[in-house]
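Exercise 3.2. Students should predict the tertiary structure of the chain below and write it as structure tokens, then compare their answer with the key that follows.

Predict this chain's 3D structure.
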Amino acid sequence: MLAQRPGATGCTAPTDRQHLANLVWLRRVRDRIDREFALPLDVEALARGAHMSTGHLARHFKLAYGEPPYSYLMTRRVERAMALLRLGDRSVTEVCFAVGCSSLGTFSTRFTELVGMSPSAYRRQARLAPASLPPCIAKQVTRPVRNREAPAVRALLP
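Answer key:
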């Protein structure tokens, strides 16, 4: 049920109960993205699974998590790609498809936006980095964060 917002004319805002229900659905969407990032997900399918319109999901997801669902999905894919590239046993193209991207160009563009260097440059630099850091620490240190877009060039590890 929708309640009238104070001072609004004809506009309604969700009640606390509806807001909490929306947060539950948004958490399920986020968990699905985290779990199924390598599958061909799109915002429309995520919205249908949450019983929301695409626009409603995008607006509320961004309010709750700071970025729209597609950006969150690409961040998770880039994060996993960084881990695979650090291993160095796959080509950039193989990594692209392994993390659920269907276009090498889009993958490379998003990777460069988030990490500050191309996937190939990242893999070269990862080979030169000291192997003394445990993988769990390396993952945390190198985690891509969309809300603080990467500078043009960034050192992989200290």
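Discussion points: The chain has eight helices and two strands. The first strand starts at residue 2 and ends at 4.
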